[in-house]
Structures are given as structure tokens and as C-alpha cells.
Amino acid sequence: MLAVGISGGIGSGKSTVADLLVERGATLIDADQVARDIVEPGTPVLQALVERFGSTILDDNGRLDRLALAACTFGNGEALADLNAITHPAIGLEMVRQRELCVDEDRTVLFAIPLLRAEHRSMMDLDIVVVVDCPTELTHARLVSARGMDAEDAARRIAAQMDRAERIALGDRVIDNSGTFEELVTATQALWEWLEAQRVEKHRALHG
């Protein structure tokens, strides 16, 4: 298995690149999806959240109301730290578990981690990190125009993330998404061909 971390700030196009790579044959393990799965009704993580924040974070069907949970943590550093302490380890453990299911297979596996840091690379034993990058001003404009996000909210979300230069520094390959969709497709195709070459090289090194 070639383990590839893929990251990028909000609105960078990370999910689009991941989808294009899946179309070409990659397997995707998405931290955002894992984060949704671990708070399904009946899970220990949801129970822990209810114990910490109260039953008001649940909707009428007993599912997590994300807006209600966000209201409990907005502007409250202690509450946010408690939220992260409950959810982040569980997300990490599930990502590692899913990784282990693929470890003996000769394929490229993408680990989509929005806030990928050096410790994630070590924990997931990633061979390569790909960062999808977009200038901050363009990201802001896309969030407002394409997602209908309030301009101030978009600015806050961008500011709350990892510094752009720090994120880029973690990448072995950086995909520039400041152009057209067609240019992104071309860049992703070139990335896929490079990843495939890395996968073949790793397989040969391990198995001769």
C-alpha cells in the first residue's frame, strides 16, 4: 500500500482532488466522514459528548445536532478543548483501524485530513503528503460565491486554520488550485501518474 495524506484548507479544493484520484483508482479514507460516523447514535463518542455538553446537543431523533454543539463551544476555549479531547483520539484510532485493513494490498490509499500536521504523518505512517493550495483571497471569494457563505464567517473560518505557509511546508507535492477546473484536472492526472510510479517502486522494494 502507498499511504498518501491529502490536505488543504477550507475551500482549497482538497475534496475535489481526492474525488478525481478516486476516479482513477485510489481508495479514500476521509477524516470528515470518520468524524461523522463516530458520533452516530449509540456510539461511545456521542455518549461522551452528551455527558459533557448535555442532551440539548441531540435532535428529536437522538442524533447529534452539530449547530447546537457548535453553539456550546463557540468562543469557549475550554469547551472546544474538551470537544477535541473527546473526538480527536477516536477519529485517529478509527483512521488507523481502517488503514490496517488496507496495509497488505497493492494500491494507493488516500487519507484526507483537513488539518494534517506532522504528528498525523507519523501516526498514520504516511509515505507521501499532498497539499492542495489556493491563495487566501481566492479561497475567500469561492466560499462566498460558490458556497453562499457569509463573508465575515468565511474570513473567520480561514483565519482559524493552520497558517498557509506551514501547511504547504508539510507537502511532498503541492497542487495549485488557483486556476480553472480543467487545469486542476490536468494537475491531478499528473499527480496520479507520479503516485502510481511511487506505488510501483515501493512494491518492488518490498517484494522484489
Can you walk through the features of this model?
The chain has 208 residues and is α/β, with parallel strands linked by helices. It has two domains: 1-26 and 107-201, Rossmann fold, CATH 3.40.50; 35-105, Rossmann fold (3-Layer(aba) Sandwich), CATH 3.40.50.300. Helix content is 58%, strand content 12%. The chain contains ten helices and five strands. A five-stranded parallel beta sheet has the order 2-3-1-4-5, with helices on both faces. Helix 3 runs antiparallel to helix 5 and helix 7 (136-146) packs across helix 8 (151-159). It is globular, with a radius of gyration of 18 Å.
Corresponding CATH architecture of the largest domain: 3-Layer(aba) Sandwich
Q: Give the CA-CA distance, first to last residue.
A: 15 Å
User: How many strand elements?
Assistant: 5
Q: How many separate domains make up the residues?
A: 2
Structural class of the secondary elements? alpha/beta
Query: What top-tier CATH class of the largest domain fits best?
Result: Alpha Beta
Helix content: 55-70%
